[in-house]
Design goal:
178 residues
Amino acid sequence: MDRIFLSNTIAAPLRAITNSEDTGDMLIKWIDQNITKRYTYIADIAVAYENLADATVYYTRAIRSQYYIYWRYMNVMMSSGVALSKSSYPQVKLRYEFPKTIKELSASKGDRSSSTEIAKLMQKRIHESIFTIKEHYIPMLKEMLKGSSEEEIEGFLESRYGLERKQIDYIMGKQVKR
């Protein structure tokens, strides 16, 4: 990361990105999380984020079109583009942070797997996509069941969709111990 944020050349940050073992998406997340830790001027931060946004565009194009020549442009924008976006040498010596988005995804993994399990069971009866069930049906079901008693809810969800106790607790909004 220091080769990106502390360099004033094109070659050194590009070499650091090329020799890295991390994927382009992961490097973009790392750089995104740490731009404000290294750069202090608002104009420098804005230019760095613009270059990083361009890198994200190229990454997305490469993935969607399966035309990986775009990775060249992504690597240049996220390394040299961010490195040359500063007007003065950074003086801040804060530690680099792990990307928060990955921490948040890791923390919500249990909830996401619970909703996926419930959606798969409900899919047999509803005949909708798992995404639609997770986005629309489960929140609607949560709202509809707010005024009902636990016994009614449990009986209905068990008989209708074959849900287990921990899945019913998830729909009712109770904390499930894992």
